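Pilot study result, target chain (395 residues):
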Amino acid sequence: MSAVTNLDEARALLREFPVVDGHNDLPWALREKAGYDLDRLDISGHQHEHLHTDIPRLRAGGVGAQYWSVYVPAEQPDPVAATLEQIDCVRQLLDRYQADLAPALTAADMEAARGEGRIASLMGAEGGHSIANSLGTLRGLYALGVRYMTLTHNSNVDWADSATDVPKANGLTAFGREVVREMNRLGMLVDLSHVAPSTMRDALDTSSAPVVFSHSSARAVCDHPRNIPDDVLERLPANGGVAMVTFVPKFVLQAAVDWTAEADENMRAHGLHHLDTTAEAMKVHRAFEERVPRPIATVPVIADHLDHMREVAGIDHLGIGGDYDGTAFTPDGLNDVSGYPNLLAELLDRGWSRADLAKLTWQNAVRVLGAAEDVARDLRSKQAPSNATIESLDG
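Predicted structure:
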């Protein structure tokens, strides 16, 4: 089958089974680049130089549902307030772009949006610091529409270890396990991207509902701590969860991992945070890249991760979480949210069937949210909200 035929088939499939993308950082990009001013960064048409996401490109990419990340940095002075501002940003987007974006809280809402031809818009909190060690705050985020929480970001929280910090809890503490149980009772997906393998294993031991990895790839393919070890991937069939492959070059391509370590050190030498994507920071990045050319990830690199993840976890446990607008660099061919057909065309060329791709793009992600809702209905009939505190459980 020719590349053109593959691309046509990919686009046709996406019209029926569009992409559910597990993680997009547009709200934080809007905060950083425009102070949430949607007149300055109107995503209805113009392709802004410093954004990966707008509605025309979402449409071109065949995106049918998006988890908008309501991420705030762990060092934010008041992370709960900042998370509420991020939630407010998503609500402003939903209000302004009603013809294209549909608010969604449930798997049924996702299907309804697909039937209307709108993009189901869900929210995911990135990092347990957003609840400030409070189960009441966790419930508040759920009431406001948050449907997953990543247990950590790049730093440990008091009750869980991050993949990119020095181990402290050796996984989840007693309070961390209570957070997981309360998320199960609510119907909020437990997101294990960013967490240490010990935290992944503890969460799988604790959770009675399927988990997700909203934006993580395979550690066996690229040895970066943000990726998922095979022994964890092997547990997804029994759990029912979904691992959503990410496109971030420094997580998927070993040469990019090594280059990024050097680039991050250069950023710090200029007094900048290594994750800064402001205009000033990108100028420093570009100057470094002129001196030391950046290794370029490609669509086949992402497909290699998916082939491996499928072999280990099975086709029923895969999804996509691009991490657009949360990374400075993207793979060639997956430059922005319009690129998903290129990935599907590559997978078709590798022998993936239409049924396989429908699971990858739409069906698995919708199923996992519906399964979490089923578990929550059962737990709520038997359990009251937990009022445990970190002091009472962890001392």
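One observation from the pilot: The mean pLDDT is 96. A full batch analysis is planned for the follow-on phase.
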